[in-house]
Amino acid sequence: MTSYRLQTGGLIDRQTPVSFTFDGKRMLGFEGDSLASALLANGRQLIGRSFKYHRPRGILTAGSAEPNALMTIGRGGRTEANTRATMQELYQGLEAKSQSRWPSLEFDIGALNTLLSPFLGAGFYYKTFMWPAPLWEKLYEPFIRKAAGLGKATYEADPDTYEKCWAHCDLLIIGSGPTGIAAALTSGRSGARVILVDEHSASGGSLLSETASIGDVSASVFVQQAMDELHSLSNVQILTRTTAFGWYDGNVFGAVERVQKQVALPNVALPVERLWRIVAKKALLASGAEERPLVFGGNDIPGVMMATAMRTYLNRYGVAPGKDVAIFTTNNSGYALANDLEARGIVPVAIIDSRPDGNSAYAGKARVINGAFVSDAHGGKALSSVSIFKSGIAETIKVDALAMSGGFSPVIHLACHRGGKPIWSDEQSAFLAPNGLKGMELAGAVATTVGIAACLEDGANRAAALIEGLGFKTSPASFGTVERDIVSPAAKPVWNIPGIKGKAFVDYQNDVHREDLGIAVQEGYGHVELAKRYTTNGMATDQGKLSNVNAIGLLAQARGVSPAEVGTTTFRPFYTPVSFGALTGAYHGEHFQPVRKSPLHGWAKKNGAIFVETGLWYRSSWFTRDGETTWRESVDREVRNVRVNAGLCDVSMLGKIEICGKDAAEFLNRVYSNAFLKLPVGKARYGLMLREDGMIYDDGTTSRLSEQRFFMTTTTAYAAGVMNHLEFCAQALWPDLDVHIASSTDQWAQMAVAGPKARLILQTVVDEDISNEAFPFLGAKEVSLFGGQLHGRLLRISFSGELAFELAVPASYGESVADALMEAGRNHGIQPYGVEALSVLRIEKGHVTHNEINGTVVPADLGFGKMVSSTKGDFIGKAMVAREGLTSSERPQLVGVIPLDPNTSFRSGSHILEKNAAARLENDQGYVTSSAFSPHLRSTIGLALVKRGSERHDEEVMIWNGIRNEFTPGRLCNPVFVDPENEKLHV
Amino acid sequence: MASLVPCPHCGARPKEEFTIKGAALARPTPDAGTEAWMDYVYLRDNPRGLYEEYWHHTSGCRRWLVVTRDTATHDIEHSRDVALSQLTDIRP
Ligand SMILES: [Zn+2]
Asked: Which of A56, A500, A868, A987 has the fewest CB within 10 Å, making it most exposed?
């Protein structure tokens, strides 16, 4: 005989059958079933194999602590492994597959592991697989991977959407059992903003499994009426299918709502899961208590189940556990089940009560055996009998179902998430929440209150006190008399059961049994944190919800101490597993991060740009022309064209910052190492920004547009960082300076026009005279364009070393201005060039970027020693730049490097060795920071940071790439390969 | 996961909107000497308990704040606008 559906009863809709499959076999359940209840209704008790020994396993619980009934649900991209069948609502067409079995659930080769069990005990990860090491790859790992295994993740993309949101409330109530409902009614009626969350599909908690009545109505009708009232209150938000998984600082709670996990095909307009961050002024934890298993031999055989779970299947789902049911209990919980079973015509064959006096109030028909234990359950894939141990006399009873109750553990996890340690109570035989929690109170079973009536009262009173503390007027909700309320006070725990012969499991999911904990203690791993790692107890997806307290009890007895002395491992979020999808929310694929497109993106695109991602930006790498087959061909052409004719390059992504105010010049003087106070209006200046430790932070040009207005450019990479830094300087360091800073990066389209013909081309659109006399090198001014139709900013600065200008125009005009320049330059040979060509041009000219400004260099290293003012009273970096070590003559300095044979080449990152030195790290002289093929020199060229580099021009060296084992004879040289006299800049 | 930082201008906002710079130390004068500067640039206390830090409301009002945070609990005791609080001291 197996479990089966009763003809009547339960909160299921018998008019609505629901079809589903389990391992391909079609079955029927009803609307309102969980996957677990539907499987049990179909007589399906064997639902999986265990992790290590591949033992047959059945459904143990009816809630989120389920360690056994983990299944793979769904198909394709919606495949979800390790779904707890007890939490999964049944839906039309649900496909469930069992896990940890091969080749099939019924016949599993891995069950042979049981024969290997002497090698798989406590510490097996550390012992068995330690030696010989080469066997790891060949034997141990494949063995573990094959044999072990919860579900497999799918490789297909998840087609569904997820979202994240915030919520704010006066009172957050976690759990909607009797305590939570009473609290919600009390606080909701006061007008306070209340959020009530519950991890189950329906509100009501334990009341949904109750046969008691409240007032004149059944518990489930009471729930319905209470929820109707709460739904009618606009200040109360009810979130079902929502697990509060963590308590964080600021009284913020994390919760995940399973919005559409109960349907086969989600509505695309809604997310499947929603991650909540709930900011609560106060929180009431009404999470209830978890029933503990008992550790006897064969306590994992399908058919063995928690007593409260069996009661839930019976009362809520109308599912009987079997025909011959026994109950093994240490407390009164087992008797509530006995009464309910008897009411449904299933008189238990025996109640085995560990207490010598049992429960004197029990008036049912079942045979009660007091002072007795179930020492072993027997059976393979299904339970067949139990052995009873009483005062040394053994008796065997034929059963097909066994309920167990080892007492209750308050579900205190959330209360411990902020560092508080649980406290062991001998009186309650349980770990209780830490005292003095700020912002959270506990009520109901989690606070050791027992019985429905007491929980209703406790929930109402605590909520009233919390809400009044927030300034609301209310009185505790009151309720009618509770009939048939089973009060199950804490009973003495039973850790070690006498007479056990078989394997007695403590942690079902990780297959940790009683003897493993004994071994851990014997071998010196008795400390709770060590025992956890040594035995893997409590380490699986259920995080020891059922096993931890039993493990601690067994460790305590093995060590001869109290559980208080053993203590617990640390409770951390998440309470139950949270999907990556929910944590990711909308931030994946193209929404993973924003794409920044330059105002000239369209111009670049129509000119054939190949784009490269740099940070968030899409920058033009190069512009392919017909007939060009490699990127180098395009880049070489673009470089040559800039040096011969002219090129146009999009530099809009440079950081641009407006700096205004009476003290703007003084401010710049303090943030740059070189002088800015006396920069004339109409001039640009190259500036170096240091960090306080003296290293270079960033470089760029800043132009003075008027007495109190400056225009700063930064490197692309550091645009945001420099802005933050300037704000820090202005607000934290020198708030007395009158200076205002605004980022204008996105407001300007900026283009570099570089090459001997740059002026010719630009003059056709710029109204003012930009001749060398009227607008010399480093000129900077606002200009009128196209006969006064537009105004822009023109800077005569050059990164390429050619005659060059940068023109900034309002962003929305960027593309049309670039088009006009291309048109104007057509007869002068203008071509667009990208960042690759820009890079070659600057290396040829010896200009540095963040390849060289790498956080380890001071100005003198790059030949910028004169840019460190010796006369300024203060600037960022002044105090540290001249300290010992930063002025040493042995420091790496910027130098050029070129191969002796232009037909040979080298890569960035290669190291420099003295000509005949051995290729060893201690002979390292420095390394190549940047390299490129120079069409101008028809050779690879590089910039390098080399010890005393500035004194070593013309020295022959070896360029060594240790990773590729490449050696290139080369020569150090002046880092400026093109126009070292800067004549081109001034034409 | 979910901390909130009180900004004197914007109210309680998610910590993701902020950038932390670290200890809120007073910058030494340029001639304070090597030791004072080494302390300022490199040495940090690591107290258990209240600690003053610079936080920037980067994705908000862009003001720099001094946030007093308990390093053991992450509880934030207090926050103030660094510039405004200094200016109040200067011009009461
Ligand atoms: Zn703010």
From this structure: A987
CA of A728 to the centre of ligand 1 (A): 14
One domain for residues A475 and A512: no
Strands (DSSP E) contained in A265-324 are: 273-285, 289-291, 304-306, 319-320
* A821 shares a domain with A951: no
| 8 Å CB contact of A879 and B3 | no
DSSP per position, A794-813: EE---SSSSSEEEEEEEGGG
With respect to residue A564, please indicate whether it lies within any of the assigned structural domains. yes
Which residue, of A483, A512, A536, is where some domain finishes? A483
A282 located within any domain: yes
| Ligand 1 center from residue A684 Cα (angstroms) | 34
Q: Is residue A902 part of a domain?
A: yes
Instruction: Return the beta strands (E) in A132-193 as ranges.
Output: 162-174
How close is the Cα of B59 to the center of ligand 1, in Å? 8
Residues of B in contact with A874 (CB under 8 A): 29-30
Q: Which residue of B has its CA nearest to A253?
A: B2
CATH code for the domain in which residue A964 is found:
2.40.30.110
Q: Check whether residue A473 and residue A528 sit in a common domain.
A: no
**Under 8 Å between Cβ of A749 and A809:** yes
- Whether A284 and A463 have beta carbons less than 8 Å apart is answered as yes
Q: What is the pTM of this model?
A: 0.89
Predicted local confidence at residue A348, as pLDDT: 98
Coil, helix or strand for A37? helix
Residue ranges in chain A modelled with pLDDT below 70: 1, 102-103, 108-120, 123-149
- List, in order of start, the domains of chain B with CATH numbers: 1-26+34-41+49-92 (3.30.2270.10)
Query: What CATH code is carried by the domain that includes residue A222?
Result: 3.50.50.60
Q: Identify the residue among B64, B66, B79 best suited for mutation to test binding to A, counting A beta carbons within 10 A and taking the highest.
A: B64
User: For residue B6, how far is its CA from the centre of ligand 1 (angstroms)?
Assistant: 8
Is the domain of A527 the same as that of A479? no
Given a contact cutoff of 8 angstroms between Cβ atoms, the answer to whether A243 and A255 are in contact is: yes
Domain end marker among A804, A824, A841: A841
Q: For residue B4, give how far its alpha carbon lies from the nearest alpha carbon of chain A (Å).
A: 6
B77/chain A closest Cα distance in angstroms:
10
Q: Which two tokens stand for residue A632?
A: 């180098």
Lookup: tokens for A742: 């605004």
Do A817 and A894 sit in the same domain of this protein?
no
Minimum-distance CB partner of B41 among A277, A692, A735? A692
Q: Considering only CB atoms, which chain A residues are within 8 Å of B65?
A: none
Residue A880 identity (one-letter amino acid): M
Residue B75 C-alpha, separation from nearest chain A C-alpha, in angstroms: 6
Nearest chain B residue (CA) to A417: B73
Q: Using 50, 70 and 90 to split pLDDT, how confident is the model at B92?
A: very low
Classify residue B13 by its DSSP letter.
E
| A572 Cα to chain B: minimum distance (Å) | 12
Does some domain include residue A662?
yes
- Structure-token pair, residue A164: 């994240």
- Are the Cβ atoms of A873 and B76 closer than 8 angstroms? no
Q: Which domain holds residue A195?
A: 162-289+410-483
* Co-location of A414 and A526 in the same domain: no
User: Left, alpha or beta for A322 (phi > 0: left; psi -120 to 50: alpha)?
Assistant: left
- Peptide bond connecting A498 to the previous residue in cis, omega within 30 degrees of 0: no
The H or E element containing residue B84 is helix B82-90
Residues A471-494 pLDDT 10s: 999 999 999 999 999 888 888 999
Q: Which residues surround ligand 1, an ion (CB under 5 A)?
A: B 7, 9-10, 57, 60-61
Number of domains in chain A: 4
Bridge pairing between strands A401-405 and A325-329: parallel
DSSP codes joined into one string, A204-245: TGGGGG---EETTEEHHHHHHHHHHHHHH-TTEEEE-SEEEE
Q: Do the interacting molecules here have an ipTM over 0.90?
A: yes
A880 and B27 within 8 Å at the Cβ level: the answer is no
